[in-house]
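Loading example: each entry is read as three labelled lines plus one structure line.
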Amino acid sequence: MAGMAKQDSNIPDLSSALVGARSLLGWKLVHDSIEGRTSGYIVETEAYDEHDPASHAFGGIRKRNAAMFEAAGTIYVYFTYGMHYCMNIVTGDKGLGQGVLIRALQPLEGLDIMQRRRGIESKHQLTNGPAKLTQAMGVTKQNYGQSIFHGDIYLEPGIPALSVVQTTRIGISKAKELPWRFYLADNPYVSRI
DNA sequence: AGAGCGATGGCCT
DNA sequence: GGCCATCGCTCTA
């Protein structure tokens, strides 16, 4: 199968933020919560590493960002604009301060739960943004520091990332020229093209 | 289709 | 006191 993009292991490659951002595309993100199971395919990501002025890890470890310095697979949730949560999956060696922001999902299971949590019907609007998907999936500060390898939020093999677009990141003011955003080409659940 | 803006809280200088 | 890795509503075109 040389030259064919496929998922060839049962864990994504989280060795660095850039590798992880690409590797996580197509994986199924699952949350088994008290309200039920919600899941979706990861269709859009952004990489943030320790040398990146746009990263929350830039400037060193603090209470707010400490989870980013934990082992790869740790979930780093942050609160922003007074009302939104966003979710990252930590990459790289422990102590580095790297992660991948999950920016969009293609909703798969628990659509009714997502619709209730989001307060909207439209399937396309449920998870096409970093704060939208955490609301739909029921991810909050409570999940801060959990590991995707043993917890109620975890990954399962999903769909092959056949065609990936790499471009600049969204919603940041520093280092915005870096092409560290990845998404599945032609996927209707990407936050924006 | 795109600009403007309010909501709202933790962390920074 | 100001800034945000945001979203969705409300205007103008």
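Residues 111-118 of chain A form the longest helix (8 residues).
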